[in-house]
């Protein structure tokens, strides 16, 4: 079975379970708002990492499904609140929640997903001690995501941001949730503390790699695949790792923060970034995090689930969109 | 020791523990925002109910202190997000968080308090099974608070709201957190399921009574005690139980929703509400919830803590501000 099929098999289960664990209760309009993003589908990479991690340590994938749903709901909660904060009005090609339900509705839908996620986890049929470990990890992870988002909002107001600060930001904002996905799966799958910690590092490091690669995609992926205009990060003056490395190394990007930059101007900036070595630097950094992350799996015995985790990691950093 | 001293003794412990469990970490400005409301003090009624409930079932008050702090943080999180949604710019006589840190900052500070609360609970030194019960209860409670706030926001847009709908709203928005406070204290204090459930009902019912009484205070308490202009709920056209009962019973309140109503107009509305029996109806309802709530404590053996819980309940519904 190839990777897409493996992912599809699990995302179908997650889709069904979302309907079960997040029913349209009273007040219906609130619950419709909470289901808006989860129902829009997606690859469900985080739930897949959680389920495969459970399998890879010898556990059962089906029994961790509620935790996989909880993780996906936490992810969706962060997207909803981030979109309010970043004033992003489009998400997955649809109007963002705060466009459809207003700021108050979007804040509440996010808060509801947040608490539902912890409800679902805490009511799972599993060893209380393990579940409590998962609650502690997930709540810590949510705090870190808030810290990361705070830094991200703060960076937009600042002129200079160091690469280290940027890496700290994406680590908190994005990669810790992949770490938590892998570790929750490992804990519930019955892994030792040592293995569970290694799984966390696998998720965290490949998550950083994934986020760095995301910035490259925006620049080099053809528009027909990207689904939006190429170079939008540059036009918005977004402080990505690419932009920071260029700015900090004297590579002048005329189109940076220029909302009406032409495609020719973007192309010439990309050429400059290739020539100056910025893109090579960023690609190498993404590759290094990827390799370090995959190496963490050496602690595991070989299994189809382990192979699929490696494939997911590779896919995350080779995908074009 | 009188009630104020009993409360003070416990609020001092809670104040100290907030500093311990919510230190000013990196990013400092985020954590300063999270500490802004908790540091403004307050009577800490909810933490007191939690600690006293633990004592009243034979448990130890000090060991449940982290849970008391978590509950207070959840309460503060709801205040911060509510103020954004309700566009209330003043809280406890100070600028609201979203005035000081912007909407993005206030959303994030609230989200951080939310996850910190679950971090604190899940890392407590107590029986995992009990802690997991507390996490399940608190996450369910947070979902209900979101449901209640959703209804509250929705009511402001509607012409007609039934008394039953109003009661459902305040039950979810306010009283379930008192219920959770009492039950978490009882669970961690070692109560049986039956006693813990009764404690929940004590908190829930007296919480409803408290919220109903809150609306009376706005009308009848002298301004110098209230600290704001009397009758502000009427001027704002707020759908309180008083307003709903009057509207649904043909009592015409000329000053309802009239932002510039004079004090004379407010006084004449209050007189009408007295004559028509609306205030008597609302006071009786508050009294009935209070009595029902206090009766739930009959299951407990007599103790100083039980007496203090009764005093708190009476205080909540006799206080003038």
SSE topology sketch:
2 copies of one chain form a homodimer.
Chain A: H1 3-21, H2 28-36, H3 45-56, H4 65-86, E1 90-91, E2 94-95, H5 97-122, H6 128-157, H7 163-189, H8 193-220, H9 223-226, H10 232-235, H11 241-248, H12 263-275, H13 278-295, H14 304-318
Antiparallel strand pairs in A: 1-2
Detailed description of the structure:
Chains A, B: Pfam families: polyprenyl_synt. Chains A, B: This is Farnesyl-diphosphate synthase /geranylgeranyl-diphosphate synthase. Chains A, B: Its cofactor is Mg(2+). Chains A, B: InterPro entries: Isoprenoid_synthase_dom_sf, Polyprenyl_synt, Polyprenyl_synt_CS. Chains A, B: It comes from Methanohalophilus portucalensis FDF-1. The structure is a homodimer of 321-residue chains. Chain A is mainly alpha-helical and 321 residues long. Chain A has a single domain, classed as Farnesyl Diphosphate Synthase, CATH 1.10.600. In chain A, 73% of the residues lie in helices and 1% in strands. Chain A has helices at 3-21, 28-36, 45-56, 65-86, 97-122, 128-157, 163-189, 193-220, 223-226, 232-235, 241-248, 263-275, 278-295, 304-318; strands at 90-91, 94-95. Chain A has a two-stranded antiparallel ribbon. In chain A, helix 3 packs antiparallel against helix 4 (65-86), helix 6 runs antiparallel to helix 7 and helix 7 (163-189) packs across helix 8. The first copy, chain A, starts with a helix and ends with a helix.
